[in-house]
Structure formats: structure tokens, C-alpha cells
Amino acid sequence: xxxxxxxxxxxxxxxxxxxxxxxxxxxxxxxxxxxxxxxxxxxxxxxxxxxxxxxxxxxxxxxxxxxxxxxxxxxxxxxxxxxxxxxxxxxxxxxxxxxxxxxxxxxxxxxxxxxxxxxxxxxxxxxxxxxxxxxxxxxxxxxxxxxxxxxxxxxxxxxxxxxxxxxxxxxxxxxxxxxxxxxxxxxxxxxxxxxxxxxxxxxxxxxxxxxxxxxxxxxxxxxxxxxxxxxxxxxxxxxxxxxxxxxxxxxxxxxxxxxxxxxxxxxxxxxxxxxxxxxxxxxxxxxxxxxxxxxxxxxxxxxxxxxxxxxxxxxxxxxxxxxxxxxxxxxxxxxxxxxxxxxxxxxxxxxxxxxxxxxxxxxxxxx
Length: 367
Prior knowledge:
Helices cover 40% and strands 13% of the residues. By secondary structure, the protein is of the alpha+beta class. Mean pLDDT is 92; it is low at 1-9.
């Protein structure tokens, strides 16, 4: 899918991590035994996940997952990894909604035991639409499903967002607001500007990303809508499915207090990112799946809230994804995996899509 090798996702030694985790657990459950420790092949480049079984008569659960903040010495993708914040968000979602989230257990904010803060939660059982190769490619369970089965998965996944946004008390989400002035949306965008500035500090900036920020200002919605708890990384690749129904919603590190459309735009665009890549490599992908119009209609049916300013919000999602991709590319260059081209925009895999969104002709002909 790319000319460069897949970026490394960790600089840590699994055997050393296992030994340190065992020592840490022994202080909480003396005599506990850790078995079957594994690092999933789908691990990302931000927080890392370890899976293990916990054997002890007083263990809260047997199957566990550990979310570990990125190694601060390994050219991290994000400047801050607030594990306590993620732990709190997941606990509050479980308390206030019926959105399925894994049971959260121990939180360790001291970086000493494993080299960075982490928390332990119950392991979710089921299957996840793959990112590598993406579920839009042939040869995986979702691509091989029937149209009716994919329709069920789509409807149930949009329902996750609807229930989260409707059920969670908006006031309880305000602790997620970034510092600054203005509305929740303005603060969210300003935080992304600050993230971009951090990414390019001392490096070549991206003219395309800067043009996208300027276009956002031109498209800024007259009515931003109310702020709610947004999941943040709202995409089907972060849901564990039992059959075609969501069994667990994962990856809350990007949770935010923001308009509903921040989640909807991310859901729409992250699927289109995979779909566009797949078409570009000569496969049809899943052209009838997770279409923007269908997502908007389904969400409106479930909530009574008609999504607004979606051209703004899909552009914003593509822009945010571009900043992450630029950081990942510079990280690859740091590790000697790629060379930085004269035009830094070429480091953004979806630069053509983002440019089309900036021009305003990407969604031409879409329902």
C-alpha cells in the first residue's frame, strides 16, 4: 500500500515488559501469575496494547488488556499521553451510557514500573475490521460479508455515536476542553493548530495543511451546535464486534468535548481514506459502505439532530489525519526508514484528497 516500509510501532523489548508487568502485578495481587502475554500485530504508534491472562483467585477478570503510553524517548506521535484521562473517560462512559466499553481496572500513573503510565482493563472478545491490510481490501471477514451484514454493522456503529452523544451528560465532558478561549469547536481547532506547530518545529512545514487551516476559517459554521462527549477516534477499526454488533468500543485517547459532527466527520473520512487508497490500488473496495449521506441520515433518525456543516467537518477530519501522517512520516525519517522529499506534502498519503477538499470539489456527486 506504500513504497515505504510499515513504520515501527514500538521500541520496547516484549520480554522485559513481561517481567516488569509481572513484578507490578505481584504487588497488587500477591501470587498472581501472568500467562499468554502477547503484543497484537495491529498495535498502533501511539499508545501500545499488551494482552495477557491473569491467574489468581481474586482476579477481577482473567483476560486483560494493558494500555501503555508511548515511550517518551521514541519520537512519539503525540506530545502528551494522558492515561489517567483515558481511564476516567472510559469509566464515565460505562457509568452514564449503555455504550459497550471494556471494564477499566488498575491505573498506574508512575512511569517507573513499565517506563510510562498505563492502565489495565478487561480484554474484549470478538473481531475488529483490520487496518493492515484495510478492511476495504479483499480477503478479510468484513469485505467477505454480505451487503446485509455490512448494513447491520454500519447501522449499529452509527448507533454507538448516537447513544454516546445523547446519553452522556454534556456537563460531565467539560473537563476535556482544551485551555484557551472561545467555543468548544474553536478550542478544538486551536489545539490542532498547536499540535501541527509541534509536529513541524525545526522541520519543513506543509503548505497543504496550512491551506486547509485557512479553508476551515472560510467554512466555519454559523451554528456550531452544542458540545457533547465525542469519542474522538470514531471509526469501525476501533470497535470489537460480536458478529456484526459492537461488543466493545476502544481507543479513547482522542476523546473531546466538541460538537457531534467532530465524531461524524471522522467516521466518514477515515472510511473514505481506506476506500480511496483501495481504489487507487486497483480494487473496488466497498463503495456502498459507510457513505456520507447514509451516515448522516441514520444519525438524524436516531437522534433528531440533523448533521450540519459536514463539508467543514470532513475537511477538518482529513486535516487532522494529515497532521498525524506528517508526524508519522517525520518519525520514519528519524528512524532512517524514509527520506524526506523536497515537497513535504508528499509525505501525506492522502494529499490529493485533502487538496480536493480544500478546493471544494471532493464531494461533487456524492449523495
